Amino acid sequence: MTAQLPPGLALHKVDERIMTLNVGPQHPGSGHMRLIVQIDGDYIVACDPDPGYVHRGEEKMAEYRNYVTNIPHLERPVIHDSCNILYPYVLGVEELLGIEVPERAKYIRVIASELNRCIYTMYWLAIYGIFLGHSTMFMWPAGDRELLIDLMEKMTGARVTHAHFVPGGVRNDLPPNFEDVCLRQVNYFEKRIKEYAAVFYDNPILVSRTRDTGVLSRQDAIGYGTTGSVLRASGVDYDLRVKEPYDVYDELDVHTNVMKEGDSYARSKVPWLDMIESCNIIRQTLQKMPKSGSVRVKLKPNPKTKGLESVYKRVESGRGSLGCYIVSDAKVEPYRVKLSVPSFRNLIALPNLLRGEKLGNMPSVYWSLNYWPVEADR
Amino acid sequence: MSVIAPNFKLSEFIKSLIDNAFWFLLIGVLVGLPAVFIVLFVIELPIINGELLTPFLALTWMTDPTRILPIVHAFMATDLFRVMIFPGFGFAALLAAGTIFAERKMLAKLQLRVGPFYCGKFEGILQLMGDGLKLISKEIIIPAKADKPIFWAAPVLFVAAAASFVAFIPVAPGWVVADVDVGLLGVFAVIGFFPIITILSAWSANSKFPFIGGIRALFQMVSFEIPLILSLLGVVMLTGSLNLSFIAASQSSFPWIVFLPIGAIVFYITMLAELERIPFDLPEAESEIVAGWLTELSGMMYGLVQLGTYLKLYAFAALFVVLFLGGWNGPMVVPPFPAELLANGIELGPVTANVSGLPLFTQEMLNGTLWFVLKTVAVIFFILLPRGVFPRIRIDMLLNLGWTKLIGLAFVNIFIALGLLYSGVLGPGGLQ
């Protein structure tokens, strides 16, 4: 202890009352990440999130594949929301190549992206339920999610990783009779998720557990750079589908759900309200969609871009604003692909939200941030 | 050819079974029977009904129902039978196993799934046996820094405490293992053991998550014991006895839940907390502290704790039935034993057997057991139900509930009991 420490480092004495818990990476309440939590009795005094256990180098891999073969692996970070994570990449490549997408393809993309948002949110909700010890809320969303997964399977051929969006449109046209099936299933799905309120969102124990826990003020939510449902639960009316409409969102009537409380309850309720809004959007889209027409612009094999240019596109995914920055240098591969993911931005708020909370609030605050560990690690 | 076991042949399997049975019988006949006879020649044989019990006579008795039934009667009168089989461990373990199966199927129906399905011919009824076999065959891993004797002893102590809880429960008139005058006090004493065993197990594991879980369990059980005891005081005041058999018998016209509904509700809630069931399963909250105080238990140690937990669940449900729902009291629905069988004997074709010692159980005992089991199953259903409906609550909310609301309600219940007693509604000249 007498040895001279290098400049900039300091030893600080740890209080004996403080216990350090490693919540993760092998813990039922962590996901693919670790939370180093220091507790004093039942209170959390510090929390240090340690993501990075599932880093797969997606961005580097994208530099060695051409613009179209990048698609199947770029959707891997969030396989439940695979259409939305591909959306900004595909929009960016289209702008680089100067392609105009057919009208019908734009509507199909909106349907796929909204269905995917619901599929992701249902999975998230199932885990939120089991984190709070509500096993029925684990089983119901996991079961009702199958309705939409079946729809996506009809549409794209794959249940989870669809790889459906391609530069120039979507891979395949809709199967015959898809509109009727989609409308029926979405109506039933909406009726079903409205029933969740009785067992979960209006449950007095849940409300008393999550109200006023992990409160993120409007100022902090903007300051930390959080996005999506976390931002909207803190009272900020911000939805990229309304603020920066892409594809055909400007022709649709999208309502933004905002709650002012900024606590865990609001953060858990906003995605559920968003799912109901998604059902409305899908119904509007099915009405306005052209009944026939091309869905894909034929591309040359290995399309090249013009020169050194860059593009940044972002969309509203199930977790928030998801951006993709592409730099091209007139080759068949992109020079650089950077994914700016909402999960990582929302995680930044976690240590500040958990400080001073009780240990029992840790799972609900952590998961209410709409965080997907694999996406944050990319 | 099966992929799972490529060298499997049905004929060889059957042959091996027959071989095993053959050798088992051969060794049994050549070694086992002579050994039994040698032992019987050496020891002093008893004289029953004036006849010396020779080995030959013992073998003939085994085929003669008139000889067997008195032996069965004699066995049923022993304490061993009561402890091991009927009102004691065997009966309780059977109901506990049924509870596990019912819980899994019921929750599955609630949650849009099928539950255990493949093990056993009917709806996965053998799933529990499969789970038990799995737990027995698993390796028991003990943390390197654990306090090993205490860590080993805790699950066994847990089952022992739960089984001794079962001993106080009267199932039918006269059918109780320990018919003591301070039965309810004994129950409180046994309940007081559970937090000690829990904290011993948690502390001896020398690990963080079990430690937090154990502390939570201690808080929860100790703070809920007070409303638990207070909520039962009303019944004790009305009956003037701590004897559980007497309390059950005193409810022949009205169960006490009619007069003391608040006490029953308080007891139900504290029961959920003592059993660590959702919404009070904080000591095992998996998203916060893995499995709480069970985290380091593996293999059959975990299995023993589960067995103890479900025995405890049965015992609490049975205590609720005895104290509030009238125990074995109910309308007589079991038909009496046919008298002509006793008078004329049982006709078996050409032979008429006059079997003495029938009936094995009296009509009152069968009827009481039937009503007791029906009521217990109903209470168990209400104990299991919150698991599908409620999320887990937090430790501060739990302590707040226990120390303020439940204790207050328990006192209200005591005043209601006092009012009933002094206004003359109950007691001499009253309703009951």
Q: Mean pLDDT of chain B, as a whole number?
A: 84
Strand order of the largest sheet of chain A: 1-2-3
* Span between termini of chain A: 40 Å
The helix count of chain B comes to 17
Mean pLDDT of chain A: 87
Give Rg of chain A in angstroms.
Answer: 22 Å
Number of separate structural domains of chain A: 1
Strand fraction of chain A:
5-15%
The span between the termini of chain B is 72 Å
Quaternary form: heterodimer
Could you say which overall geometry of chain B the principal axes of the C-alpha atoms support? Answer: globular
- The number of helical segments of chain A is 15
Overall geometry of chain A comes to globular
Largest sheet of chain B: 2 strands, antiparallel
Q: Name the pair of protein chains with the most residues at their interface, and give those residue counts.
A: A-B, 32 and 29 residues
Number of domains of chain B: 1
Number of strands of chain B: 4
**Name of the CATH homologous superfamily of chain A:** Cytochrome-c3 Hydrogenase, chain B
Low-pLDDT residue intervals, each spanning 5 or more residues of chain B: none
CATH architecture of chain A: Orthogonal Bundle
